[in-house]
Design a protein that fits this description.
Structural class: alpha/beta
Number of strands: 20
CATH superfamily of the largest domain: Ribokinase
Number of helices: 15
Helix content: 25-40%
CATH architecture of the largest domain: 3-Layer(aba) Sandwich
Mean pLDDT: 90
Low-confidence stretches: none
Largest sheet: 11 strands, mixed
CATH topology of the largest domain: UDP-N-acetylmuramoyl-L-alanine:D-glutamate ligase
Number of domains: 2
Shape: elongated
Radius of gyration: 26 Å
Distance between the termini: 26 Å
Strand order of the largest sheet: 1-9-20-19-18-17-16-15-10-11-12
Strand content: 15-25%
Length: about 475
């Protein structure tokens, strides 16, 4: 599925009306198609339209007129008497009752046509009051194009937002439906086409079908040497748990790796030794339970097919030197997470520009703020742009983790909306790093595909977990996507 930002949708809308079809005719087509979609999913007897001043309100009025033609009673609440020309035309054509004060909510369906995708600033109090009233009414709500109150690009809310049962969006869903508060603004999404122009300027939204068959069929006549070797460099005396979570995701054959190595500071070596017998645990030189840079001890890492580093290691200049060494000497896939990200943010992000290896970074919003020197609030205004520009500047693949993950290599960009609130806990990111490390070792895929697949595995496993709480949910996802 492809989605577009607010900016791109405005360009599409403008071009369509200037070159292909008059705006009033486009509004008629949109409202009529939306009415058909409503009737395909509901059988209302009394409908209330929430009508704004822009084209979204005009779409609602056309939709209402079509429902009236089917014998349904439809009223319209206009939140303003200042309407766009096309919306005013459709107000004159509307045959139902029109109110300028919100009527008693004794309807069985509400159509949200208050604003649409053009919202840019905090809602006025009268809008918030209406939104609160309809959200509390327990009446089914259908939003047109995007629920009122949600930014069409970022998904952040502007003071309040409609919680709709169905969102009917035209031609392309808006990226804000898959980010931040947008994820909670609707239960079901319908996409309708009314003949407006197409665009290549899209953001891909991952769907589970695209991952089927990515895991290769395994021959019986194979051995551990065929499935790669990985190293997880993690942990400290202060944070021993992060490395345990990361290597648990990679261990117990969950990721199908031939050899798994865990490198930890000397002081915590015994915590991990023999915890998973199939993992080869090694100690690194350290001081007070924190890794110490020692070039000679790092040579064995260069033989690995993938490496992840940073989980639970604390911030230090020694860690910075280790990362710099790997960037300049390692030639496969390096995943940098957690304190690895915080360390390069503190001592210098530009080391990312001088590298031999392919790099995947996995920051959450606060780590992204440290890396980019852009505040979280500014990142959230357009997280897609912030992620893509950083990945392009430093030639890395980046997973910007939040309720949804944004994945980009600076050229391609997509959103992975799999998962749920069960991932909102410490350790989820460490598990993602372990997953990425494992599949990077033996899958012949570019980092962007690895990042997309890893995000899917973690998110989909979380979806299984809320239904069936057990330890093998990752294995269930593997069964879904294996080839043969």
């Amino acid at each position: 599925m492809d989605a577009v930002s607010q900016e791109v949708m405005k360009k599409i809308d403008t071009y369509t009306c200037e070159h292909l079809i008059k705006s009033i005719d486009l509004m008629e087509a949109a409202g009529a198609s939306m009415a058909k979609e409503v009737l395909s999913q509901y059988s209302p007897k009394r409908v209330l339209l929430l009508v704004g001043s822009s084209g979204n309100g005009g779409d609602a009025l056309v939709l209402g007129r079509k429902l009236i033609e089917e014998g349904i009673m439809v009223d319209a609440y206009l939140i303003s008497d200042k309407l766009s020309m096309d919306t005013n035309t459709n107000k004159e054509r509307f045959k139902g009752n029109i109110y300028y004060e919100l009527p008693k909510l004794d309807y069985d369906l509400i159509i949200d046509g208050l604003i649409g995708f053009g919202l840019k600033s905090k809602l006025r109090d009268n809008y918030i009051k209406v939104i609160d009233s309809v959200n509390q009414s327990n009446i089914k709500i259908v939003s047109l194009d995007i629920p009122t109150g949600i930014d069409a690009t970022s998904g952040v809310s502007y003071g309040a937002f409609i919680k709709s049962d169905l969102c009917i969006t035209i031609e392309y869903p808006k990226t804000g439906l898959f980010l931040n508060d947008g994820l909670d603004s609707y239960k079901k999404l319908s996409i309708i086409s009314i003949g407006i122009i197409k665009t290549s300027d899209v953001i891909h939204i991952h769907e589970k079908e695209e991952f089927r068959g990515l895991l290769p069929y395994r021959l019986r006549n194979s051995n551990k040497g065929d499935y790669g070797r990985v190293a997880i460099v993690a942990g400290s005396y202060k944070y021993p748990g992060a490395s345990y979570i990361a290597y648990q995701a990679c261990a117990s054959f969950k990721m199908g790796v031939g050899y798994s190595y865990l490198y930890v500071p000397y002081e915590v070596y015994e915590v991990y030794a023999l915890r998973h017998p199939e993992v080869i645990t090694s100690s690194l030189p350290s001081v007070d339970g924190h890794i110490q840079y020692d070039r000679e001890s790092l040579g064995s890492l260069l033989k690995m097919d993938s490496i992840s580093i940073g989980m639970g290691m604390d911030i230090s200049y020694d860690l910075y030197q280790v990362i710099e060494y790997l960037l300049q000497n390692y030639d496969k896939t390096l995943i940098i997470d957690a304190d690895g990200l915080n360390t390069i943010a503190k001592y210098g992000v530009d080391i990312l520009k001088n590298k031999k290896c392919r790099v995947i970074l996995t920051p959450h919003l606060k780590e992204m703020e440290r890396l980019s020197k852009i505040s979280v609030s500014d990142i959230m205004k357009n997280p897609l742009r912030a992620a893509k520009e950083f990945a392009h500047e430093y030639d890395v693949t980046l997973i910007l983790k939040s309720a949804s993950s944004i994945i980009t290599n600076g050229h391609n960009i997509s959103i992975s909306a799999f998962g749920n609130s069960s991932l909102a806990k410490g350790g989820s990111g460490d598990m993602l790093s372990g997953i990425l490390t494992g599949i990077s070792a033996y899958l012949d895929l570019e980092p962007y595909k690895i990042a997309s697949l890893g995000s899917y595995i973690l998110g989909r496993a979380a979806e299984y977990a809320v239904v069936d709480i057990e330890e093998e949910n990752i294995n269930k996802v593997f069964k879904e996507i294996k080839n043969g």
